[in-house]
């Protein structure tokens, strides 16, 4: 099995995935990490792990379509079974999303369908929710609305700031995202009639 990871920044989820793949000896090749920004600090970590760290700068392209086509070509050189978005901060075109239908995952830092878009922790604090979290989902053309694979929750504490809440959620992201990816790689996660299903371990 082959996976390609897309990042835009620090790549802490990417690191958690690489670490889990190594520690748990996943039958997987992390073929490349690709960023739309040359200054994404996660690229260095990938390179240090011997994983090709590639930049496809979105600024080099005048339209979303042109960028997505270039990105798709680079990705498909590695023929991935799964495309993993890990803090990839670009909206993708429907054509790109359709190309990876059923084989592209994302993690979003809220309990979807609540708090789509950006600044999710600020949104959660403003709404006064007592429980917040993160969601792994298949990517569809409808931003942050794809079939939900798994979720994790944390309590919102009275003295939480955006930063403290984000940090607690991130810790949980690093647990659920590798687990979901592992399920996919092991063939236990699939989309059935638009619903994500995870088969439990065989006994
Ligand atoms: C995470 O909070 C993730 O949920 C969101 O972007 C952030 C990326 O962080 N999609 P990192 O680059 O994985 O550290």
Describe the structure using short key phrases.
203 residues, two-stranded antiparallel sheet, globular, Rossmann fold, binds 5-O-phosphono-beta-D-ribofuranosylamine, alpha/beta, phosphoribosylglycinamide formyltransferase activity, 7-stranded mixed beta sheet
Condensed summary:
By secondary structure, this protein is an alpha/beta fold. 34% of the residues lie in helices and 24% in strands.
Write up this protein.
The protein has 203 residues and is an alpha/beta fold. It has one domain (2-107, 136-149, 176-198): Formyl transferase, N-terminal domain (Rossmann fold). Helices cover 34% and strands 24% of the residues. The chain has a seven-stranded mixed sheet, covered by helices on one side. α1 (12-23) links the parallel β1 and β2. α1 (12-23) crosses α6 (162-185). The longest helix is centred in the last third of the chain and has 24 residues, at 162-185. The chain is globular and about 50 Å long. The mean pLDDT is 96. The structure holds 5-O-phosphono-beta-D-ribofuranosylamine. Residues 7, 9-14, 86-87, 107-109, 134, 170, 173 line the site of 5-O-phosphono-beta-D-ribofuranosylamine (GRF).
């Amino acid at each position: 099995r082959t996976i390609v990871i897309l990042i835009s920044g620090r790549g802490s989820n990417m690191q958690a995935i690489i670490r889990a793949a190594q520690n748990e000896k996943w039958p997987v090749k992390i073929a490349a990490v690709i960023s739309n920004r040359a200054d994404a600090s996660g690229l260095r970590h990938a390179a240090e792990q011997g994983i090709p760290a590639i930049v496809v700068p979105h600024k080099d392209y005048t339209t979303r379509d042109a960028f997505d086509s270039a990105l798709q070509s680079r990705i498909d050189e590695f023929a991935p079974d799964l495309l993993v978005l890990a803090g990839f901060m670009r909206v993708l075109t429907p054509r790109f999303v359709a190309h990876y239908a059923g084989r592209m995952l994302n993690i979003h830092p809220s309990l979807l369908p609540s708090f789509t878009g950006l600044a999710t922790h600020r949104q959660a604090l403003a709404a006064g929710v007592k429980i917040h979290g993160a969601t792994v989902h298949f990517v569809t053309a409808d931003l942050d609305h794809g079939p939900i694979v798994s979720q994790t929750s944390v309590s919102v504490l009275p003295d939480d700031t955006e930063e403290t809440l984000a940090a607690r959620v991130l810790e949980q992201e690093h647990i659920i995202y590798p687990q979901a990816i592992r399920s996919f790689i092991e063939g236990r996660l699939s989309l059935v009639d638009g619903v994500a299903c995870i088969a439990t371990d065989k006994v």
